[in-house]
Specification:
Helix content: 25-40%
Radius of gyration: 16 Å
Strand order of the largest sheet: 1-2
Largest sheet: 2 strands, antiparallel
CATH topology of the largest domain: Homing Intron 3 (I-Ppo) Encoded Endonuclease, Chain A
Structural class: alpha+beta
Bound molecules: zinc ion
Strand content: 5-15%
Number of domains: 2
Shape: elongated
Distance between the termini: 8 Å
């Protein structure tokens, strides 16, 4: 379980009240453990939970969301228009530097992915993301259940693989969820 200091930092990182231009950098400066700056590229590399494509996962308005999407929302002060994607100029999924992010259409996203020889859907909010099937509340529940039940049993109940359950239990994934 995270300590009090970490909880305070996480609260400071509750971004819902910070939806103004320029506040992302300030929000991140009170949570320096969340990202590391790559001096060569200027990328802000997310240090906490990643999804299976390497995108950072965080919480925003009490929901799981991809970290770069949260970065775009907070830095722009807008929500992401329906059907639009937040894409990376720098081609690093774990980068959350708003200066490296831009808004594109689904078509832009698929052209971009084809060019890079990948197949990846436009990043949706974490909960809707194909590989991120659990809600924040469920992750908390799974932590609370702990090892009193077999991972495979718990996994079946939540519709995820047992490895996801053990990853949550030992803080390998979603370690930013408190
Ligand atoms: Zn970058």
């Amino acid at each position: 379980m995270p300590g009090a200091a970490q909880r305070t930092r996480m609260q400071a990182f509750a971004l819902s009240s910070l939806r103004k231009r320029g506040v992302w950098r300030r929000a991140m400066s009170i949570a320096p453990h969340k990202y590391k700056i790559d001096e060569q590229t200027g990328c802000w590399i997310w240090q906490l939970a990643l999804d299976s494509w390497g995108y950072g996962v965080t919480q925003y308005n009490k929901r799981m969301i991809l970290a770069h999407r949260a970065a775009w929302i907070v830095s722009s002060g807008h929500s992401i228009p329906k059907g639009m994607c937040v894409l990376h100029r720098c081609d690093r999924p774990s980068c959350i530097n708003p200066a490296h992010l831009f808004l594109g259409t689904l078509q832009d996203n698929s052209d971009d992915m084809k060019r890079k020889g990948r197949s990846h859907l436009c990043g949706h909010n974490g909960e809707k993301h194909p590989q991120v099937k659990l809600t924040l509340a469920q992750v908390r529940e799974i932590r609370r259940i702990g090892k009193s039940e077999k991972a495979v049993v718990v996994g079946k109940r939540y519709g995820v693989n047992y490895r996801t359950i053990s990853g949550i239990r030992n803080n390998r994934i979603w370690k930013n969820v408190i």
